Amino acid sequence: xxxxxxxxxxxxxxxxxxxxxxxxxxxxxxxxxxxxxxxxxxxxxxxxxxxxxxxxxxxxxxxxxxxxxxxxxxxxxxxxxxxxxxxxxxxxxxxxxxxxxxxxxxxxxxxxxxxxxxxxxxxxxxxxxxxxxxxxxxxxxxxxxxxxxxxxxxxxxxxxxxxxxxxxxxxxx
Length: 173
Description:
By secondary structure, the chain is mainly β. Helix content is 0%, strand content 49%.
């Protein structure tokens, strides 16, 4: 909720208004919100700010689709491989959050990797708040942490649309 930057900009011929923002060497890590206003319209996006650590292995979070129904279980697979090709041995933790005006964790899942892979199944989201940025659909975020046998962690996340029907229609003026 603390504003750190505000500047009135003019867009170029492509509708882009570039700017630079130098950040401090010690930051508040977490989710930052970037808001843009033009006339009576506005848009916002959440950006994660975290410390960069050189990765030791690659983590992939795969779901069968990028959207799920509000009453449908969320399933997927986690794959983790060292950059030299060997499969990661260790554990995986998936934390699921839904957007209900604020991000709220609603489920978690922990498993042991087998040949660098683990399947997961999370319960249905139940309720989410729709957002204009998602075309009225809601959002769920999967935060994934893979820990190898040496204790090193790699993280990734995936944002999913949550809808109430497989058919979505939209009126464009």
